[in-house]
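wait is this the right file?? whatever heres the structure
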């Protein structure tokens, strides 16, 4: 065996380097879960129009940097509408989990940038601004 082949053989036997993803941080978990909850809420509204109770659920526009989001999450979990609707029960479980993570486990990692409760009622629409001269 030639001396240059031994290192190559060892490298091939070792296999590809494992790509270890970075561990979730509290902040990234809160952000991911809040997006899941918002998406599930929108999906619920789109797929369950036959359930009249869905119309009366509190809205779930979530901004984890707005202090009022904690009250919004509590209100959603405590809302008496839609008992016994499996999709709503699953969503309430996720909301409860998000509230617990925000209020207990990740309390020190979260920075509230506002306490504007109206911003959670009437979110600012996201617009895309194109560079000058483009349409």
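ok assuming it is, sequence goes like this
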């Amino acid at each position: 065996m030639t001396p240059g082949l031994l290192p190559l053989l060892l490298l091939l036997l070792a296999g590809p380097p494992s790509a270890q993803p970075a561990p979730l941080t509290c902040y990234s978990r809160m952000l991911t879960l809040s997006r899941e909850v918002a998406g599930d809420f929108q999906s619920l509204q789109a797929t369950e129009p036959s359930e009249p109770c869905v119309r009366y659920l509190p809205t779930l526009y979530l901004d984890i940097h707005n202090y009022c989001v904690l009250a919004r999450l509590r209100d959603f979990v405590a809302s008496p509408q839609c008992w016994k609707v499996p999709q709503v029960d699953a969503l309430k479980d996720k909301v409860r989990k998000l509230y617990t993570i925000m209020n207990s486990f990740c309390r020190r990692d979260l920075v509230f940038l506002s306490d504007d409760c109206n911003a959670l009622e009437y979110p600012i629409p996201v617009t895309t601004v194109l560079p000058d001269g483009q349409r």
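Confidence is low (pLDDT under 50) at residues 126-130. so i think its the right one actually
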